[in-house]
Amino acid sequence: MRWNRSNYVEEHEEIRRWIQGRAQDLCEWCTAPNHVFGFHNKEGDFYLAPGPGPVPSAEDSPGYVAKKIILTMAHLDQDTRNNDPENLAFLCQRCHLNHDRPHNLVKIGEARDRRHNQMRLF
Ligand SMILES: [Zn+2]
To answer: Which residues contact 71 (CB under 8 A, 6 or more apart)?
Structure first.
């Protein structure tokens, strides 16, 4: 989903930095470090890419492509104004997207329904 600054409290950046410190710049669910290249296996375990390049050798990680890990702050209940520390997690793209997937599918369905209903008016 698109990031919209107006959906967040004014102190968002300060809160994000605090959560980043709490997490010690690691994904709080899979322990992937921020700003490194690596990959997840099917079970979700994280592995650093060997060497400096973004793509690990096929023998080190068959079937997996390394990506740069970018950690972001997630609101676990999807309420971007609920900044209770228990509701926040510092997550990698994979963990964040997996957590948000059910919510995003509902939003996509609602948008599709709105479009479908609009089309019925004409
Ligand atoms: Zn993760």
So the answer is: 20, 23, 25, 26, 27, 32, 34, 90, 91, 92
Domain ranges of the chain: 5-35+70-115
Q: Are 73 and 15 in contact (CB under 8 A)?
A: yes
**Is 18:86 a contact under the CB 8 Å cutoff?**
no
Task: Report if pTM > 0.90.
Answer: no
Q: Specify whether the CB–CB gap between 59 and 50 falls below 8 A.
A: no
Return residues with CB closer than 5 A to ligand 1 (ion).
27, 29-30, 32, 92, 95
Give the whole-angstrom CA distance, residue 65 versus residue 54.
8
Q: Tokens for 4?
A: 């919209």
- The predicted-structure confidence for 90-116, as pLDDT tens digits, reads as follows 999 999 999 999 988 888 888 888 888
